[in-house]
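Board notes, transcribed. Complex of a protein with uridine-5'-diphosphate.
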Amino acid sequence: MTTPLGQLGFAVRSIDILGIRVDDVTLDEAAAIGDAAIRSGQSHRIVTPNAEIVMAARQDDDFRRILNDSTLAIPDGAGLLLAGRLLGSPLRVQVAGTDLAERIATLSAAKGYRLFLLGAAPGIADLAASRLVGLHRDLEIAGTYAGSAEPVADVDTRARLRAAGRIDVLFVAFGAGKQEAWIARNQAILGIPLAIGVGGVFDFWSGRVPRAPLRIRRAGFDWLFRLVVQPWRWRRQLALPRFMIAAVVEGLERSRRSAGES
Ligand code: UDP
């Protein structure tokens, strides 16, 4: 079978983490794949699985299919790296969705790709776009729109996006699950080459929510920083210990199976 990555001329090793495909790419490789996707003339989506997303997708067939059918699934979360080691399939590095979105914005400024920012609270995508243009004077923003993740709003949102003219890259910030579903429903109809669900990235870019400092991210504690900044996340973050337990159980089962085979 030709995978979408194969069509783009890339060979990437993928691993299975609790039923979710995760691609073993670096930030540079992910950006190069994004660039090729934009130039391909087809529609490609990049997804950013982390422990919370894997746990949500285990319970949701549609979400799992949307993730596994993506062009690229970057390892966005320290938990995935730990799980890869437990499962005997280590990933090389963590690739944060925020970092990839920043790289794609830099690339877009250099190559003249037009960006559209969809989602987040009213006014936030606009602030995020201003910040990006401040960083990259040549960046062309096709438009911004808070919109709604609800399917009943799709027709209206598509009209907004069509009115913006050519869009090469679409960042969607409706939160994990909703944003990937929105992209799966609408991207191909709009003929947009590259779409990425970016979660809280517009909140970071706008300055409304602080991003964890690099040292904390490198230590794998960005989840703790987010919990301090946004304490309402505690319920969602219960997925993290559940994820680690599931990964340990799956790792033990795999070891038992391979011991049985040898
Ligand atoms: N958001 C939105 N519509 C929704 C749910 C969320 O626009 O129905 C926005 C929210 O304002 C935020 C972004 O989606 O800017 C990401 O939300 P969250 O921080 O929960 O992202 P995640 O942790 O899922 O990446």
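The chain has one domain: 15-246. The radius of gyration is 18 Å.
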